[in-house]
Amino acid sequence: MSRKRKIIGGILLLLFLCIAGVFIYLKAVIPPGEEWLAYNSGKINADIDRQLEDLDIDTLISEKESLVLEKNIDELQQAVGQGKLTYEELAAICLYRIKTLDQSRHGYNSVTEVAADVLEQARACDTARSALLQSGIQFPPSPLFGIPVLLKDNINTADIPTSAGAEAFSTFLPREDAALVRTLREQGAVILGKNNLSEFANYLSSVMPSGYSGKAGQTVNPFGPLKISPSGSSSGSAVSVTANLAPVSFGTETAGSISGPAAANSVVGFKPSRGSISAEGIMPLIQAVDTPGPIAKCVSDASLAYGALSGSYADLSGQEDALNGTVIGLLIYDYNQEDMITQLKTALEHAGAKVKELPGIQDVSVQNIIYLTFRRDFEVYALKYGLPITTLKELIAYNQEDSRRRIRYGQDLLEAADVVEQCDDGPIKGSIQEAQEILDTLFSEHGLNAVVFLNSTASATVSAAGYPQLTVPLGMDKKGVPQGATFAAEYGRERKLLELGYSFEQNVQGRFRP
Q: Looking at residue 30, what is its pLDDT?
């Protein structure tokens, strides 16, 4: 009997060891999921409380929040013009929503910082408005005047920390604003704060969840926190807009970093032609490719935000039928959901477009060659703007000193970039040229006005080429996951692309509010 017990005990022990071994193996090979992690909420909420302390915020929310939620920029300006709302009240409502929805327990965590002078900026706009009205000057002087905007946390702001999500740079103040921030200030926009992102624009760890950074923690998708990815790397920018924390945010894209989050969060994302908005003062991923662009709830707001930075405004009034008579190439990939492809095609045809179904184009992505130039681009930025750590090797060593907090998911991508002996632009330039040739051939051979695809499935190639793309909400799939239709056009065709996207939006009305 004793021998029998020993045999049974041995078998049970062996079984336990096997199960433990399988668990350890799976933990090692399966990427970790998202977690409720918010590292900066206490500071953000204290900054907000200080600014709201002299306001009767409960009465303000009760009486005027409805004037803000789901309103486009024109409607907000109209409410101000009619005396129903002030810029200070608009900014205060945004701050209140950040505190109660974003920085509460199990909040969205899309914001990393709020500016210390949000209400001061807004009051200055109210004062300027009164002066303009008295002098008979047209109001507002610019579409973004008095409008609160958020910025992805890799865009320099001299008075708000810019970290690219790195714990090492949590308090870093650049020597000067990014070019686009200077333009926003000149336009009278209210700089509300900064948005979380996948750290270093998703170039830290190969297993890190989208929307995680060592500075702020995990941004979650409001449509399914911890279940539906917020996508990245402009995760916080898209989440903050869909949650009505701000009317517009500015993200950056290298390979789908605007289109992916826009689709996943049921908002509009616009990546214009490379170079049409200055990328000066943005912490680089690939300096030769990085492009900033707006994220908004509707195409008209994205158009106004783009116009404010580029000086090129598209008049979308009367463009509801812009798709009628156009030829649109529908790029279809084997892994696309068939019902969503059908829904997209039907919507286009209903709007009067001729749809040509085409196989998905070759994926020309620069993501797998970032390591060739990352160290150089990072160190050039570090010296120019005064980062406290100026070499990639030093940053890696700093992170290793407290790896559990600073690099929760590792830093294998930084380490891969650091061992490159000679930075090489050749492969990146080759990818840019290849992507341009693929798209140029596609447009010319099929006589297309634009191409369209689900979510960000072809974004890598479009981004590498530097061509404009616009993501517009399409609806939701059967599992309740937001879906987007992303349109792309030839270089410099922003106006046409915005017209087509506006027409699609007006016909489909695919945005959902979380």
A: 43
Annotated active-site residue 152? The verdict is yes
- The whole-angstrom separation of Cα 127 and Cα 81 is 13
Catalytic residue among 205, 213, 233, 237: 233
Q: Is 273 a catalytic residue?
A: no
Which pLDDT score, from 0 to 100, does residue 341 have? 98
pLDDT at 31: 52
- In terms of DSSP H, where are the helices of 368-493? 374-385, 392-400, 403-406, 412-418, 426-446, 459-465
Q: Using CB atoms within 10 Å of the CB of residue 337, give its burial: 0 to 12 exposed, 13 to 18 middle, 19+ buried.
A: middle
Out of 99, 152, 215, 297, pick the active-site residue.
152
pLDDT < 70 regions, the chain: 1-32
**pLDDT of 154-202, one tens digit each?**
999 999 999 999 999 999 999 999 999 999 999 999 999 999 999 999 9
List all residues 6 or more positions away from 509 whose beta carbon is below 8 Å from its beta carbon: none
Amino acid found at 470: L
- H/E element holding 474? strand 469-476
- Return the exposure string of 255-294: e unless at least 16 CB atoms fall within 10 Å of the residue's CB, then b: bbbbbbbbbbbbbbbbbbbbebbebebbbbbbbbbbbbbb
Closest alpha carbon to 332 in 321, 343, 317, 318: 343
